[in-house]
Amino acid sequence: MEGKDNKHMNRREFLTRMGASSAAAMAMMTMKPLDLLAKGNNALAHPATPALAQAEGMTYRITPHTGDRVSLMGFGMMRLPRKDRAIDQDRVNELVDYAIEHGLNYFDTAPAYGDSEVATGIALKRHPRDKFFVATKMSNQGGDRSLEAGKAMFERSLERLQVDYVDYYLLHSIGQSGMKDFNPRFIDNGLLDYLLEERKKGRIRNLGFSYHGNVEVFDWLLDHDDEYEWDFCQIEMNYIDWRHASMGGGWKRDADAEYLYNKLNRLNIPAVIMEPLLGGKLGDLPKEMKEQLRAVRPDDSDARWAFRWVGSRPGVLTVLSGMNRMEHLKENIETFSPLEPCSQAEDDLLASIANQMSGYPTIPCTACEYCMPCPFGVNIPGNFAIYNKAVNEHVLPLPEKSAADYKKRAKDFAKEYRKQLPKKALATSCTECEQCLSKCPQQIRIPNQMQRLVELLDAK
After folding, report:
1. Which of 446, 384, 374 is nearest to 420 (CA)?
2. pLDDT-based confidence at 408, cuts 50/70/90?
3. 287-324 pLDDT, tens per residue?
4. How far apart are CA 316 and CA 337, in angstroms?
5. Most exposed: 54, 317, 336, 459, by fewest CB within 10 Å?
């Protein structure tokens, strides 16, 4: 009897069992026995665990449902290099050329990232279509949410990217305001039905969503996987968010990354990972934590530890990083070429560091810049980055005004702080207009945090 369950099995289970198993078998034929022993044959243990596709060079994973051979390192195209405030296309081309030359083939963009789709399309068009997978999104969070507007956005993405089809297409930033926001964006207007039809036509090869909010929406979408047959899902995951997501405040109180990841794995849905460095926070740890890591691997950067941890998780398809400097791109590619998975002892060490960091009073800004531009010129992520660096390096004490050296440290911080940003960009320019509040995926109370910075600056 043909029915929804059988249809679901045909796509999900049949392709997963046949495609992923065949890909895993082919991959194993190219690998040495010791490589298999060291990396583990996760693909056979769990169908959502993409196969490791080679022993040397870039590590690849196989998408279970379409058989795509995806680089475990993915390129996030949100924070592209700029020159005179415009995207520097020559530098973008240089970065993309180096990435593709060294095996990186997954590029993630979105209409919400300004001119990123255009710049990404120009850079990728210079390469054969089978050398890259491009991901973009339905960024209809604000403005016109009609079906016609959604269709126009999809067509515009194809035009800007200069492609006939999108390899990985996402419902963008799902969950920030619960089902009351999701339904008018995708269900009531018929937009999700339209995207499902585009997948059938082949203009969308893999359909998924990026989760940024209320876990009710995440659960609802996965509980309806029999109907929608999600090919992948993009989540924030790192060794802090694994069990300490609540330390960031805002929407992250709803669910730790461990919960999100495990639910995806149970449904055989690969995870695309964003924020592996938690907005750069895990790329520059407090000094005592750096020392713990250096004692184990003296030559590894903080960022390499974080990337290795995420890449070691079975079920992860690719790990996104926004790289606008060649030295960062080279180091990240080296980390994944090939990936050396974390040992159990290393996992335990990072879990311990996560426990330690959960008590640090930093601001959970990921530098996504969704809050920008500020109408009054305040550099919101810049202010937060300066403050967080001062906390991590113990320039500032914990925010207890009774500390004997609090005033001196606050004055020293204020002196250095004013040197790092133009006067107009400082926290003192914040008028508490609150225009930034609704734009922040982390739901940081930005005006409150700015006033705390001002209080530090005014310490007598």
Report:
1. 384
2. confident
3. 899 999 999 999 999 999 999 999 999 999 999 999 99
4. 16
5. 459
Tokens at residue 389, please?
């660096």
Beta-carbon count within 10 A of 45 CB: 9
- What was the pLDDT predicted at 36? 24
Two structure tokens written together for 198? 């585009």
**What DSSP letter does each residue of 112-162 carry, written as one string?**
GGTTHHHHHHHHHHTS-GGG-EEEEEE--SSS--SHHHHHHHHHHHHHHHT
Q: Which residue has the higher pLDDT, 23 or 101?
A: 101
User: CA–CA separation, 79 vs 367, rounded Å?
Assistant: 9
DSSP of 249-280: -GGGGS--HHHHHHHHHHTT--EEEE-TTTTT
The answer on pLDDT for 27 being more than 50 is: no
Q: What are the residues facing 236 on neighbouring strands?
A: 274
Kindly give, in sequence order, each residue whose CB lies less than 8 Å from that of residue 131, ignoring residues fewer than 6 positions away: 100, 105
Give the whole-angstrom CA distance, residue 423 versus residue 4.
61
Beta strand segments in 156-263, E: 166-174, 204-211, 232-236
Extract the tokens encoding 52.
């490791």
